[in-house]
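Quick one: structure for this chain?
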Amino acid sequence: MDEARRAAVAAMLGARSVAVVGASARAGSFGERMVTEALRGSARVHLVNPRYHRIGELACASALSDLDEPVDVALLGVPDSALLDQLRAAADAGARSAVLFGSAHGLRDEVRTVAADAGMAVCGAGCMGFVNNAVGVRALGYLEPDPVPHGSVTLVTHSGSAFSTLLRANRGFGFRLAVSSGQELVTDTADYIDYALDDPGTGIIALLMETPRSVTRLRRSLLRAAERGVPVVVLTVGGSPRGRAMVAAHSGALAGEGAAWQAFCASTGAVRVGDMAELADTLELFAAGRRSHRRGSGRIATVHDSGAERALTADLAHELGIEFATLSEATVATIGERLDEGLAPTNPLDVWGTGADTRSLFAACLRAMADDPGVGVTALAVDLVTEFDGDTAYADAVVDVAKQTDLPLAVLASVASAIDRPTAQHLRDNGIPVLEGARSGLAAMAHLAGWPLGIDAPEVAPQRRTTSKTGFALLAEYGVPVVRTRTAQTHADVCAAAAEIGYPVVLKTAGVEHKSDVGGVVLGITHEGQLADAYLQMSESLGPSVAVSAMAPPGIEVSVGFVRDDAFGPLVVVAAGGTLVELLADRVIACPPLSRRRARELVDSLRIRPLLDGWRGAPPVDVEALIDVIVAIATMAGELGDVFDAVEANPVIVSPLGAVAVDVLTVEKPSPTTT
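Got it. Here's what it folds into:
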C-alpha cells in the first residue's frame, strides 16, 4: 500500500474524531444507533442533522461544513439519494474517510471517483462499520456488544451478519479489530490486513470473503502475514454454481470457485476453512497461542472416555483426510502402564476403565500424548455435559496438563448444545480452547497441527517470451517435449508429412476442440494406403485441414495447462488426461509459478497417481519428466497469463521413456473492443 493510502486507512480505523451524519434522537432509529455507538468509543463525536440543534448533551450541526474541525471519519447514515452529496460534503470539509452503510446502488463508480479525488478511505458500501478495540473506536450503524470482547483477532468480513455473529460468539477469543467491509468500493481487505500487520498486538487474522478484490495486493499482504508468523484463516463463499450466482447478485462481482480459492490460500500460507463452525473453532484454537514443537506436522492425537466415540472420531478424521500421529515407543509404554487390561495404547486412545482415579489417569495420558514428538495437537474428546454429582475430573485433568506444558491442548466436544457452559468457561479461563463440534473441531486441530503451511516460492527469472507462437511451437519454446507434427490440407501433403515423420502416425482433424468426440483422431496408421483412406473419410466429414503426428509410446494420459480466472489470474491445472478429463473430474489447481516440490505434490494428489507407479504389472512411468512439464507450463502461465485465456496440453503421454505432449489447445485472450 502506498503511503497516502496507508495514512487514510490509519486515520479511519484509528479515528480521533467522528462525524455522525444523519444523527437522530428518535428511539430505535438508525441515526440514534450511530450516535449511541459513536459515544461508546474514544473519538470526539460531532453530530450532523439540520433537523436538530442538540441531541442529548451534544450540539448538532446543520451540515458538515459547519463543524469546527475536519474529522477523521464521517459516518454517512443517509439514503442512497443523498449519499453522493454527503460524501462530497465530507471531502470538501476535509474528512479523511467515510463509512457508507447504504447499498450505494448505481453509485459505485461515482463513490470511487469522489474518494480517489479526495484521497479518502471508505468502509463499505453496504457495511456495518468497524470496531477498533486497540484504540477504542466504534464506527457502527448497528448496536453491537459493549464492550466487544478484547483479544488478538483481526476480523474482516464481507458479510454483516457474520460480523455480528462472531462478535457475539462468546468463545475463547476476542478482537483487536473487527471490520464489516461490505462491498469494498474503495478500501479493501488488503488495506485492512496491512493495517493489522502494522499493529504488533495482532495475533491472528480472520477473513470471510465473497469476492477477492485487488488480488495482487491481497497476495502481497497475506505473504507479509506469513513472513511475520501471523496466521490467516479464510472462509470463502460462492464456491458452488448456485453460490457464485448468489454472490454476483449480492455484491455485483463474481467469486472464484472453491478450487481457485484453495490454490490461492495454499500459495500464500493462509488456512482455508469450510464454514462458520470451523472458523470459530479454528480461531479459538489459534488464539490460545499454543504452538506445536512439530510445526507443520499436520498430525493430531485424541483421548476418549468412550470406545464408540473414539471409533466415530477415527471415521470422521478419515473422511476429512486428517492423520492421527503414530505414537513413539516411549509414549506407548508410558500410556500402556496406565491402562486397564484390554485397552490398547493407540491413537486415538480409549482410556475408560473402572476403579481408576479419573483425573490423574486422563492427565497422565494427555500429557504423554502432548509430549510425543509426532503429535501436533492433542485433545481430550469428551462431551462436557452437566455432571449432577459435581464431578469435574475431566476438566481438572486438562487444566492440570495445561499448567505443565505450553504445547497445543484442547477439549473436543461433539455436540455443542450439550456443553455445560460454566465448565467450558472454566476451561477457557485457563487458556484451554473448547471446540464445539466433532467435524469442525477435528478440522481446526488439523489446521493448527499443519501450520505454518509451506509456501511455494520458486525463483523464476522474469522472461517475456515470444507471444506470437501457439500450439506445439508455444509448448516447445517452454521446453515441453512435443510429438513431431506436420499440418496438411491435401492428400499429397498428408502422405509427404507421414513419409517425413515415419510410420506409424496419427491423423487428427484441425480446429476442433474435442477431436475424438467427432471421429477426428485415427491412431496407429502404418502405411500410405491406410493413411489415404483415413484422410478421405476425415476430410469429407470434418474438412481438409489436418495434422499428422508421430505415434507416442504407450503410457498414462495426463492433462497439463492453465486457465485465466477473472479474479485470481492464471491458474495451473493438472488432471487425468485424454477423454477422462470431464468424466473423472480428477484435477488439482495451483497458482504459478511452481517449484518441483509443489508440482510433485500436485501429481501426488491426483486419484490416478497409482497408475503412474505401475498398476497391476504395468511398468512405472517417468514421473520426473511429468514434473518437468508441469513446471514449464506453470512458468508459461506466469509469463503469458495475460495473453492467453487458456493453454491445455491434453494429453501428455507419460511413459517409462519420458513425457510428451500429443495435442494442445490455445485460447488467446480477446482484444479489447473499441467503440
